[in-house]
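Lecture 7, part B: from sequences to assemblies.

Below are the input chains for today's worked example.
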Amino acid sequence: MSDCRFSKEILHAWVDGEAGEASGSVISHVTECPVCTLEVERLRASGQFLRDLVDEAVGEVEPLMALQSIRERIGPKQGPGGVFSRLRLGWDRVWDKHRVALAGAAFAFSLGALVAPALLYFTGSSTGRSLQGEQSARTASVMVESVEIEGGAKTVVLQPEGSSTAVIWIDSGDSIDHGSAP
Amino acid sequence: MVLHPRFFFLLCISLGLGVTLSTSRVEAAEHALKIQIIHATKSGKAVDAELRPLVRDFSQLKFSSFRIIDRAQIKVAVGATSKFQLPNGLWMDVALKELDRAGGLRLNVSAQKLKFKSTIAIKPGGTVAVGGPLYKGGALIFTLSREKSPSR
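Predicted structure of the full complex, as structure tokens:
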């Protein structure tokens, strides 16, 4: 091999199919030069050996899948459990993009949850309509807030002062002593 | 001390959830109510012993005899309606609207057939009686009572 001064780089490129326009001159030289012919055979043999080695180890690989596989191998280390890892990855992305919005929403949510019950407590019910006033509503055990009846019937609410019982009477005309009603 | 943003976020969410859940739990709790169906008549003076404290509040009614003919215990929760049928076939509906700030149950009591509806607030120890429907020569009285130590 040392007897031939033909460019080894061009020779190697030709073996790899990358000699381009120089291919013609390489072919004519290799057919006449036994040293380069031997070198070409050696290169082809070692190339085939490497391809066989890869085929044996990896098998037929679809290029995109191979790329994805490589990316996964060189990417950041994932924790155990596929679903958990994906969730965490997804959460990290959302958090990185919307950190301020998420923190604000959480703060608003907790503030609302804290304030709403207190507000309801201090304002009380907006629908309650006491018949006897707010003070007695706080002390009486029972408070009739409203009574409605349609048609000809009448209703009477009886609740002696201090009593823990309220009576709503749907009056049929002769069952209540109206004279002594409060 | 620097509060990590993620920790702050989780803290806020936990706090909000905790308060919300505890509040809704109070609203979702069940409250026991005692129901009595009383037959009031003008004949005789028989009063069931259990009714004696209650009958004092019936003094304005022109009845002299009060007998319990049915009783039940129901549990009401906010948003739920309980129905109870009187011996004359009339259905009474009892629905808990909400708990008021004084610890009372705000109830809607209604009888669709009579086109009657009422809103009452009842605290532990309180009783409301709805009476008037005619029955066997007298009248029916439907009472709702809340025990002094209510069981939830």
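Note for the exam: Chain B touches chain A through 54 residues (CB under 8 Å). Keep this in mind when comparing with the next example.
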